[in-house]
Design a protein that fits this description.
Blueprint lengths: L1 H24 L12 H32 L6 H33 L2 H23 L3 H14 L4 H13 L3 H14 L4 H13 L3 H14 L4 H13 L3 H14 L4 H13 L3 H14 L6 H9 L2
Helix pairs in contact: 1-2, 1-3, 2-3, 4-5, 4-6, 5-6, 6-7, 7-8, 8-9, 9-10, 10-11, 11-12, 12-13, 13-14
């Protein structure tokens, strides 16, 4: 009797373990927020039906094997071998069915589906932009997040989401979102500027300088970016580099009185008397009402 009980245990325990492994091995198709993506909902339903079928087949097989155990204690090795063969075949069938589910989903991703996806994304981002401009940040956030669920690498959706966080003064969330955009597109100059401005707001001018320098290396057509870089460099007592930056801004906007003012100041700070005089004269002609002209003239004469 003890021998029969021992044989029963030796068979049923491996059997239970194998059943658990087979069920847990069943793969699932997962994407961002499955509950909201129809295609994946359909895939999940197919997976669940297949999984249920596997569990039912396994349960039936289990009962059949239990019925055979009573007279088969003397055939322990043969039973184990047969069941292992069954599990192997069952696992192969599950993997084959799962592959078919994936192939069906990919086949459905037709040109029309892609066009619809593109239109859905455009509509969501457009609606998000309108909501943000109207101050409805909650709606805007939801629109952008829904767009991201459709396309997890959509830069415009992330940009909108970061802007929403910025509008709500959720600085850390905005910063992290902008940084993620840079992972998707390291040459996004606008995002670099946004990160630079966030760094300024956080009192980190050194980091802000890095972001602004990277932005002007990518796109050197924005005078205001060079001017802001010059201002940041001046705040860090980097006068010589600041002078180079403001000269670049002047090349783009030669008559800008604010830039001429900065050029005069930085020329004086670096001891560049000729540059200072030239900048002073241009500033005097462009903005004769500037109340710093007299002080500039005196400081230049002392160089």
């Amino acid at each position: 009797m003890n021998y029969s009980l021992l044989s029963f245990v030796l068979i049923i325990v491996p059997l239970a373990v194998i059943i658990v492994i087979v069920v847990r091995k069943f793969p699932q198709l997962t994407v961002l927020d499955v509950d909201n993506i129809p295609e994946v909902k359909a895939g999940r339903k197919k997976d669940e039906v297949l999984k249920k079928r596997v569990e039912e087949n396994t349960e039936i097989s289990k009962k059949n094997w239990l019925n055979k155990l009573k007279p088969a204690t003397a055939k322990f090795g043969k039973v184990q071998t047969s069941f292992r063969d069954y599990v192997t075949k069952l696992t192969t069938r599950v993997e084959h069915e799962d592959k078919k589910v994936v192939e069906i989903k990919e086949a459905k991703d037709t040109k029309e589906d892609k066009e619809k996806k593109k239109l859905d994304l455009f509509s969501l981002i457009h609606d998000g932009n309108i909501a943000m401009n109207n101050g409805d940040y909650e709606t805007a956030e939801n629109k952008y997040i829904t767009a991201i669920r459709i396309d997890a690498k959509n830069v415009e959706a992330y940009r909108g989401l970061a802007d929403v966080y910025l509008k709500q003064e959720q600085i850390e969330q905005a910063k992290q979102t902008y940084e993620f955009i840079l992972q998707l597109n390291p040459n996004d100059g606008d995002v670099l500027i946004s990160l630079g401005d966030l760094s300024i707001e956080m009192g980190d001018n050194k980091n802000a300088i890095d972001y602004y320098q990277r932005s002007v290396l990518i796109d050197d057509s924005h005078a205001n970016r060079f001017a802001k870089l010059a201002e940041l460099l001046e705040s860090m007592a980097e006068y010589q580099t600041g002078l180079v930056a403001i000269e670049q801004a002047i090349e783009l906007e030669p008559q800008n009185p604010k830039y001429l003012d900065m050029l005069t100041e930085l020329s004086i700070m670096t001891g560049e008397k000729d540059k200072a005089l030239d900048a002073y004269e241009k500033l005097r002609m462009t903005n004769p009402e500037n109340n710093k002209l007299s002080a500039f003239k005196d400081r230049i004469s002392n160089i």
